[in-house]
Amino acid sequence: MKAIICPISTEKIDSNVSRLTIFLNVVLIAFYLISLQPAFIIIVAIDYAIRAIYKAEYSPLRAIANIFVRWLKLSPKPINKAQKVFASRLGMLCAITAGILYFTGNIAASVVIAAMLMVLAFMDSVFNFCLGCVIYNYLVYPFYKNR
Predict the structure, then answer these.
(1) What angle do CA 76, 77, 81 make, to 5 degrees?
(2) What is the mean pLDDT of residues 107-116?
């Protein structure tokens, strides 16, 4: 259970790929907010779930981001994987909640949750400020690191 709540990892991932993957999610969430077509938020939820629960290598949006990073010939910028997994889990919960709210007829609440997720994802992808990572580093990790 501890690994589910607070992933501990010595693995690194490329910040460029992570940020571009998150930006692709921002675009999909924007499409959802503009069109109110649930397919967009479902795709976002599935992609977050793949990165949060399974292996990030299976994420379709991450695969697209990898292509762009290689095409742009960006040098890898390694960052800690654990905090990004935790942030992906929070993103997954928000996207699933937005989807459930949409399908239960609570469109306004769905839009609010999706918009909040989009703002946070935008801040991570453009300004490199990840609120999930901050929560992980200061509020979650300190309680689990010595166990």
Answers:
(1) 110
(2) 97
